[in-house]
Amino acid sequence: PAPSRWKPAPAWPATPAPLRLVGGVLLLWLAWLAIAEGKARGLNFLLSVFCLVWMADIAAYFSGRAFGRRKLAPSISPGKSWEGVWGGMAGVLLLAVAWIAFDRQGLADGPSLYTQLWQRGGPVGLVVACLFLAALSVVGDLFESLVKRAAGAKDSSALLPGHGGVLDRIDALLPVCPLALALVLA
User: Fold this and answer.
1) CA pair distance 51, 38, nearest whole angstrom
2) Which residues contact residue 121 at a Cβ distance below 8 angstroms, ignoring those fewer than 6 apart?
3) pTM across the whole model
4) Each residue of 72-121: pLDDT tens digit?
5) How far apart are CA 92 and CA 127, in angstroms?
6) Residue 154 · residue 12 · CB < 8 Å
7) What is the spatial distance between Cα 160 and Cα 176, in angstroms, rounded to a whole number?
8) Nearest Cα residue to 175 out of 123, 121, 138
9) Which of 43, 45, 129, 147 is least surrounded by Cβ atoms within 10 Å, i.e. has the fewest?
């Protein structure tokens, strides 16, 4: 759809610009700190967090295309469906099981996010945490779409043509990285 036909959510443009700027900078700063700490914990940990977001996005895309009937948030992101969300969550759970099996081989520089979640909360804790983080990745994606719609823009930049811009590559990482780290440190 053309940008002129998008309907922005009314609350976001009504939020004062300085508050939106402070919130955006705070989200970026928290994500950066979490990524730096994640790297200090080991590349296996950091990569497992990134792959959680990527798996949620990829699995949601394909399951939404195959089974999507019920729209998730049509005024914010018309292509997203509830079936895509459930498919993304299933993909994350499969990834967690595979990654824990890989970690048990002892080939990585340290435990992944999934192994640490398993160690802290057992199988139930792992499932709940993975579903929570997968849901947060959807929230991050929807939030970035909301910002774009409010600005009347289809893409956040032209740096990555066909990808919706640079923010589309990091939108889901912004909430997931700090909260993934919080889950293993709590």
Assistant:
1) 13
2) 128, 129
3) 0.84
4) 988 888 889 999 999 999 999 999 999 999 999 999 999 999 999 999 99
5) 9
6) no
7) 22
8) 138
9) 43
